[in-house]
Design a protein that fits this description.
disordered N terminus, 8 helices, 199 residues
Length: 199
């Protein structure tokens, strides 16, 4: 899978992030990852609350909530297997910067499209980070685990893009997505230095 062709991300993660940052603190990356899955489930619930009349969006988000919470439990299982404890929730500054780019105000359609593209962006970068982890981490269990989740995140990314196009209501989704990609490329330049999924 090429993040350049499939995910269109403009700035790839340096694989040295795994060696220099992640491998020195596996417990920290697992705690952060667990909360990322929980937040992804919360985001899908928010989309349901905001769009209750859109039956297939509600159905797809309900399935996504289940899958994200299953991932949360699987990460927590690994934490327990290794004798770790789930730490406190970490602030995700990367996601916070993406939130700033979401349109405030405007029509419901504009807000919905932006929320879906915001969601797609997080899934795309998570997928790319899981790919880098799966290919570079010196830990067979985590390498296999992150490869499996990379595939799952790519599917989620595609779901959000598809729903944004389906419910676009005349909004130019491709142009807005290009704006997200350009903005994210500037944001991510400041990351890749911490033992968090987006850090």
């Amino acid at each position: 899978m090429s993040e350049k062709t499939i995910l269109k991300l403009q700035l790839p993660t340096d694989p040295q992030w795994v060696k220099n940052v992640v491998e020195g603190n596996i417990e920290e990356i697992l705690t952060d990852h667990a909360y990322c899955e929980q937040k992804a489930a919360s985001n899908a619930i928010t989309l349901i609350i905001q769009n209750p009349e859109m039956n297939d969006l509600v159905q797809e988000m309900a399935l996504l909530v289940q899958e994200e919470m299953d991932h949360f439990k699987r990460v927590h299982d690994i934490i327990l297997q290794r004798g770790y404890v789930l730490g406190k929730e970490r602030k995700d500054d990367y996601v916070g910067e993406l939130v700033k780019f979401m349109k405030k105000g405007g029509s419901r359609s504009q807000q919905r499209v932006d929320r879906l593209l915001f969601s797609a962006m997080i899934e795309a970068r998570s997928c790319e980070r899981f790919k880098v982890l799966s290919e570079n981490i010196n830990d067979a269990q985590l390498s296999d685990f992150y490869y499996e989740l990379m595939v799952s995140e790519a599917t989620h990314y595609a779901t959000f893009i598809r729903l944004a196009r389906k419910y676009a209501d005349g909004i130019d989704v491709d142009t807005r997505w290009a704006e997200y990609l350009a903005y994210e490329a500037e944001v991510i330049k400041n990351y890749g230095k911490r033992e968090t999924i987006h850090g």
